């Protein structure tokens, strides 16, 4: 199980942030969340497409090659 990493403010100077900086960080957080969700969705779809498309792709490529094998020759393990 992955552990969460937390960053705590250490000892040192306290820097006050402006409202514009807070807004910019908020928009960056939203953008990062959007990219993470989009990439997760894309990878899930790619996994399904690869899962169901690999064998048909191999059969189609095999049927279009020279010499032309029969379908039973393509599907047999020997």
TrEMBL record:
UniProt keyword terms in alphabetical order: Membrane, Mitochondrion, Mitochondrion outer membrane, Protein transport, Transmembrane, Transmembrane helix, Transport
BP terms from Gene Ontology: protein import into mitochondrial matrix
Membrane-spanning ranges: none
Subcellular location(s) per record: Mitochondrion outer membrane
Domain of life assignment: Eukaryota
InterPro entries given in the database record: Tom7
GO cellular component terms listed in the entry, alphabetical order: mitochondrial outer membrane translocase complex
Pfam families, per the entry: Tom7
Membrane topology: Single-pass membrane protein
Membrane keyword on record: yes
Family label: Belongs to the Tom7 family.
Protein name: Mitochondrial import receptor subunit TOM7-1-like
Organism: Sesamum indicum (Oriental sesame)
Upper classification of the organism: Eukaryota, Viridiplantae, Streptophyta, Embryophyta, Tracheophyta
């Amino acid at each position: 199980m992955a552990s969460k990493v937390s960053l705590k403010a250490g000892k040192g100077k306290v820097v006050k942030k402006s409202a514009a900086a807070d807004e910019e960080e908020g928009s960056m957080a939203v953008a990062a969340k959007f990219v993470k969700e989009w990439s997760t969705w894309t990878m899930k779809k790619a996994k399904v497409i690869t899962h169901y498309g690999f064998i048909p792709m191999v059969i189609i490529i095999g049927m279009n090659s020279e010499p032309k094998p029969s379908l039973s020759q393509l599907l047999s393990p020997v």
